[in-house]
């Protein structure tokens, strides 16, 4: 760098080096930028990671230290009692299994329905296309309301089954529109060529379009899976037996109980008490961990996918 | 994402709205209300107070079940089995997580899908359902409930029950009834600091001021009093304790718009009374002399607990649970020498009163139950389980010889292998978790021995002091019509918001108490007088109709 700077005056007169000189100055600026950028991004990483690390530390700390505000990045008064409390409950595992089952089933259904709908909508020459789009978009702004929905689901006999969770929420209109935009961006010639070679519509979708759409499909899987994993409201509405509840309800209820909104007018046990402060932390760790683990694997698709869908003009 | 959260917010609003609109149309004409000849299947002929209820044929009733995470519902509980053995009745629980019980209840009632029995309902929650006709006016059927009637008479509960009446003169909730009021919340004080300063436990609010002053003199860099329960409303508990000690109905987290003025025989706006002004003056004095932490009005509970745990404060609000579950363990970790106790409610200008109500949450019954041929049997069953001495004993203690034993004096105690709130540490089984007794859905109210069965010795002592005080008489009823309720609920929010805001300003000294009159004028501009007019007219209307 020093030598290049020394060379500056000598190369200054001709236009060609001047351009290079500008390039040199940019390089210097770029180095500064890189340093600043690294600092800022490190700060962002710290700010983003800190709550996670803090939660993990809290989940393994004794409640007294949490209450005293002494837990930061390292657990104090290390204990796994709360993990034990939560994990030793067979209902926790039952509900956890439910969550996995609901998430997988609902995501599968959603991805199939959304893909089919979006692909159809991406065909510009389709008759009634704008009406179909309109129907979907309409539901973004208007819903039947809670009680009519409940009555509908109940009278369809979906109550107390996975269908009550999977079917009413099968298509998310936002996801649908992103996917539609993605399919529209695929070159039409490809499909025409495939048609000339003898593929029917389903063949085109299955053999040509979908293999080219891994990115968007992966993104949608992630969107849907995260949403279903975290959801509790539909389950709360339509499931009347605790052995059917997803783990989100289990944990939500556990926190409500531990924070003592409602007790029978007596003092709850000392071993349950310990739970209160660490409970929230344990809860968050246990529920977010599996879905967090999914991210790294889908991430490269995730970034590409959402860009591809969104940029389409 | 957007859609999800929007839908959630909308859901809550929709539930409230639709609960108000008429859903089920099985209205009870008062003409046929008394004709129960078609509804006696399974009922006992000679059921009376003290009789063991047993249906003459096997029956089952659906019940909304508030699932408590500390003792999640189990189908093999002894409670279910023994209940069926004794009464021939099987309960079919519809499990709802405790965290969102009210919402699901509104939904089920609104959708016409509610179970027959709907327990764990607090009195103000009933209003929303009355006009829909989905809830049974239980006051019409008290004759079917001899145990309840007996208790109303013996314990003189009529004035309390009257406060539940709606504009039609009926009530729609079977409340939990206590023989003695049960006051829970008070102040918790570090007694080792009192000992160190040679002070007694303060008995009145004025003595509390002196004590705080002495603490401040010794520890100048501490705020001796730093309070919790400030979310969502500032100083929820402290304001309420002060207000009730001044003879008002309630403030803070128990905010009551109107308070009964026995002298003038009319209702006054709580936050515009001279009493309320005195409350604010008192708080203002504490803040101004740095005895009360100004953050008391805004901080989180956790922060207040931290201050107490780290000896940055010595006084805080609490109940028995907070004392045993929060403060003692916190202090044990940071300062093993500290001693802390819940003091009897400090006495104010209203004298030595016990402000607690003798009613608590209770049960609504779906009006569709009225059409069932088992209606009478169901009412008898409800009367036995929730209101008879045997039923209450069973729901709380369980089965003699299995879950509890009686000593020579007839006093109940847990069986050796059964634990409850750590009374039998190390016992293999748990009264709530393994047997299903002492369950908040089925066991509440009753005689003090029963209510306080599982209280610690110090809490029983606290209750003894509180019970020696005069119970506060409930205000006279002022049932509002639907239109009136709708109207006043439109006035309530702006009034309440303004009261909270001004309370904070006055207490913290941001607004001079000399501006009190201006503040009252502001309340008037927010329809305070119209509000009072409506309430007082409703009171007079009810009084004249029920002379």
TrEMBL record, chain A:
Segments of skewed composition (Low complexity): 1-13
PROSITE patterns per the UniProt record, alphabetical: ABC_TM1
Region (Disordered): 1-23
Chain ranges passing through the membrane: 29-53, 100-120, 132-151, 163-183, 215-239, 277-298
Membrane topology recorded in Swiss-Prot or TrEMBL: Multi-pass membrane protein
Domain annotation ABC transmembrane type-1: ranges: 96-295
UniProt keyword Cell membrane present: yes
Keyword Protein transport: no
Record's keyword terms, sorted: Cell membrane, Membrane, Transmembrane, Transmembrane helix, Transport
Localization, UniProt: Cell membrane
Pfam family membership, one: BPD_transp_1
Family to which this protein belongs: Belongs to the binding-protein-dependent transport system permease family.
Protein name: Sugar ABC transporter permease
UniProtKB/TrEMBL annotation, chain B:
Transmembrane segments: none
Database matches in PANTHER family: ARABINOSE-BINDING PROTEIN-RELATED, DIACETYLCHITOBIOSE BINDING PROTEIN DASA
InterPro entries with a match to the protein in the record: Bact_solute-bd_prot1, SBP
Pfam families for this protein: SBP_bac_1 (PF01547)
CDD domains xrefs: PBP2_AlgQ_like_4
Keyword Signal: yes
Protein keywords: Signal
Designated name of the protein: Sugar ABC transporter substrate-binding protein
Signal peptide coordinates: 1-27
Superkingdom of origin: Bacteria
């Amino acid at each position: 760098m020093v030598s290049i700077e020394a060379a500056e005056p000598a190369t200054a007169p001709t236009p060609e080096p001047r351009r290079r000189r500008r390039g040199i100055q940019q390089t210097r600026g770029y180095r500064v930028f890189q340093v600043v950028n690294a600092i800022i991004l490190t700060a962002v990483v710290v700010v983003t990671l800190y709550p996670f690390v803090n939660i993990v530390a809290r989940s393994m700390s004794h409640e007294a230290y949490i209450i005293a505000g002494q837990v930061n990045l390292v657990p104090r008064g290390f204990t796994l009692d709360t993990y034990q409390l939560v994990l030793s409950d067979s209902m926790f595992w039952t509900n956890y299994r439910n969550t996995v089952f609901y998430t997988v089933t609902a995501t599968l259904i959603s991805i199939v329905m959304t893909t089919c709908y979006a692909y159809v909508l991406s065909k510009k020459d389709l008759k009634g296309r704008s009406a179909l789009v309109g129907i979907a978009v309409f539901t973004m702004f208007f819903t039947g309301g809670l009680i009519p929905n409940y009555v509908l689901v109940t009278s369809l006999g979906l109550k107390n089954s996975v269908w009550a969770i999977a079917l009413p929420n099968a298509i998310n209109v936002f996801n649908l529109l992103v996917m539609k935009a993605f399919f529209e961006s695929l070159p039409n010639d490809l499909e025409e060529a495939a048609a000339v070679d003898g593929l029917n519509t389903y063949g085109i979708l299955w053999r040509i379009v979908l293999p080219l759409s891994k990115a968007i499909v992966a993104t949608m899987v992630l969107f849907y899976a995260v949403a279903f994993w975290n959801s509790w409201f539909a389950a709360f509405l339509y499931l009347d037996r605790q052995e059917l509840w997803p783990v989100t309800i289990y944990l939500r209820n556990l926190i409500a109980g531990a924070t003592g909104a409602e007790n029978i007018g007596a003092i709850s046990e000392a071993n349950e008490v310990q739970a209160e402060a660490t409970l929230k932390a344990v809860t968050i760790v246990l529920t977010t961990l599996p879905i967090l683990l999914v991210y790294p694997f889908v991430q490269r698709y995730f970034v590409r996918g959402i860009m591809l869908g969104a940029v389409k003009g | 994402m957007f859609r999800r959260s929007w839908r959630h917010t909308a859901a809550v609003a929709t539930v409230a709205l639709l609960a108000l609109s008429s859903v089920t149309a099985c209205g009870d004409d008062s003409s046929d209300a008394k004709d129960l000849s078609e509804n006696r299947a399974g009922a006992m002929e000679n059921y009376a107070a003290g009789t063991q209820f047993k249906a003459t044929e096997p029956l089952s009733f659906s019940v909304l079940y508030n699932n408590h995470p500390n003792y999640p519902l189990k189908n093999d509980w002894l409670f279910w089995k023994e209940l069926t053995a004794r009464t021939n009745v099987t309960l079919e629980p519809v499990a709802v997580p405790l965290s969102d019980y009210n919402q699901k209840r509104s939904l089920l009632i609104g959708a016409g899908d509610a179970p027959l029995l709907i327990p764990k309902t607090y009195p103000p929650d009933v209003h929303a359902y009355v006009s829909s006709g989905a809830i049974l006016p239980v006051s019409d059927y008290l004759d079917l409930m001899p145990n309840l009637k007996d208790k109303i008479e013996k314990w003189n509960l009529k004035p309390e029950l009257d406060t539940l009446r709606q504009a039609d003169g009926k009530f729609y909730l079977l409340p939990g009834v206590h023989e003695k009021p049960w006051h829970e919340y008070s102040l918790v004080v570090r007694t080792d600091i009192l000992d160190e300063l040679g002070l007694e436990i303060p008995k009145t609010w004025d003595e509390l001021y002196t004590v705080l002053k002495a603490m401040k003199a010794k520890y100048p860099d501490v705020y001796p009093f730093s309070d919790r329960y400030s979310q969502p409303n500032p100083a929820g508990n402290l304001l309420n304790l002060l207000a009730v000690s001044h003879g008002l109905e309630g403030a803070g987290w128990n905010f009551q718009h109107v308070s009964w003025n026995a002298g003038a025989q009319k209702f006054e706006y709580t936050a515009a009374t001279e009493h309320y002004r005195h409350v604010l003056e008192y708080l203002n004095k504490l803040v101004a002399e740095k005895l009360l932490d100004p953050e008391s009005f805004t901080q989180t509970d956790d922060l207040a607990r931290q201050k107490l745990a780290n000896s940055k404060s010595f006084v805080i609000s609490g109940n028995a649970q907070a004392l045993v579950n929060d403060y003692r363990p916190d202090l044990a970790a940071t300062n093993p020498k500290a001693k802390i106790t819940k003091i009897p409610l400090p006495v104010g200008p209203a004298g030595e009163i016990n402000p607690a109500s003798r009613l608590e949450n209770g049960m609504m019954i779906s009006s569709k139950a009225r059409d069932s041929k088992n209606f009478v049997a169901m009412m008898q069953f409800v009367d036995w389980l929730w209101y008879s001495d045997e039923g209450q004993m069973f729901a709380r203690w369980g089965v003699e010889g299995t879950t509890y034993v009686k000593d020579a004096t007839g006093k109940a105690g847990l069986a050796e292998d059964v634990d409850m709130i750590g009374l039998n540490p190390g016992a293999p089984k748990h009264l709530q978790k393994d047997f299903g007794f002492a369950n908040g859905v089925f066991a509440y109210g009753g005689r003090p021995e029963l209510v306080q069965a599982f209280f610690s010795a110090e809490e029983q002592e606290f209750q003894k002091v509180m019970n020696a005080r005069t119970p506060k008489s409930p205000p006279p009823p002022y049932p509002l019509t639907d239109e009136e309720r709708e109207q006043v609920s439109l006035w309530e929010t702006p009034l309440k918001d303004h009261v909270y805001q001004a309370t904070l300003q006055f207490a913290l000294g941001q607004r001079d108490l000399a501006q009190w009159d201006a503040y009252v004028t502001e309340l008037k501009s927010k329809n305070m007088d119209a509000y009072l007019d409506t309430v007082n007219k409703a009171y007079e209307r009810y009084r004249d109709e029920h002379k």
